[in-house]
Amino acid sequence: MRTNMKVLVALGLLLIGAVTLGVLSSSAKDTLTSQPTRNIEVNKQSEEKVLVQVGSNTITNIQLLNYKEYNSISPATLTDSEILKHMIKEELFLQLADKEGVSASLEEGRQEAVRMKQLLSEQPQEVQDTHNKLIDTMGVTEKEYWEKIAPPEYQKLLSKQNVAAKIQQDIQSAQKDKSDVPPSLNEFKEQLYQSSMTNGTVQIKDKDVILE
Q1: Least C-beta-crowded within 10 Å: which of 69, 119, 189, 199?
Q2: How many whole angstroms separate alpha carbon 32 and alpha carbon 127?
Q3: DSSP, residue by residue, the chain
């Protein structure tokens, strides 16, 4: 079952639109084995407002609400501030891939979607059923999911993988003392976040937003 869960995680990552917070693995319910109450349709009816400007893109209250739903995050596990900060870091990292010229193409995203769809078809029925339930939560058909939603989301995931590999390569090339421990990816993202807050790349647009 463990192998099956890893496959489902790989397939389900794009459903939440970001790499899952590390603390979720120990602090929150497993969204792939539990069936939490979904409020996605209710969220759609909420008045949308921009919470944070991140470069040329924005993060809205609807995106935050949906992220919490897809990850079954309760107030007892993570605060909105912590979740929003994570979402900002992931958006900054994605934009960095574009700046570094290593963004994946949409066609690569389509190819990855085809590969993952084939991988899913080879999994036990319970794995396929769980993934289909996640698709239903999004309010789209399976065809719409694989042809319209999956490709651009896998494009984002591949872009993040590309920039992570480039960062690691650049750090290793710049290291004079090979015994030095390079910063982890999480540490790099934190540094990127802090510098972006300072230089104005990240701007808070809602007075109720407080980033910890």
Answers
A1: 199
A2: 9
A3: -HHHHHHHHHHHHHHHTSPPPTTHHHHS--TTTS-----HHHHHTSPP-EEEEETTEEEEHHHHHHHHHHHT--TTT--HHHHHHHHHHHHHHHHHHHHTT-PPPHHHHHHHHHHHHHHHHTS-HHHHHHHHHHHHHTT--HHHIIIIIHHHHHHHHHHHHHHHHHHHHHHHHH-SSTTSPPPPHHHHHHHHHHHHHHHTSEEE-STT----
The Cβ-side half-sphere exposure at 144, using a 13 Å CA radius, reads 6
Enter the pTM of the model: 0.77
The answer to whether 47 and 102 are in contact (CB under 8 A) is no
**Roughly what angle, to the nearest 10 degrees, separates helices 80-99 and 150-174?**
70
> Letter for the amino acid at 61?
N
Whole-angstrom distance, CA of residue 156 vs CA of residue 158: 5
Cα torsion 67, 73, 76, 82 to 10°: value is: -40
CA 141/CA 42 separation, integer angstroms:
19
Q: b/e for 137-156, b at 16 or more Cβ within 10 A?
A: beeeeeeebbeebbbebbbb
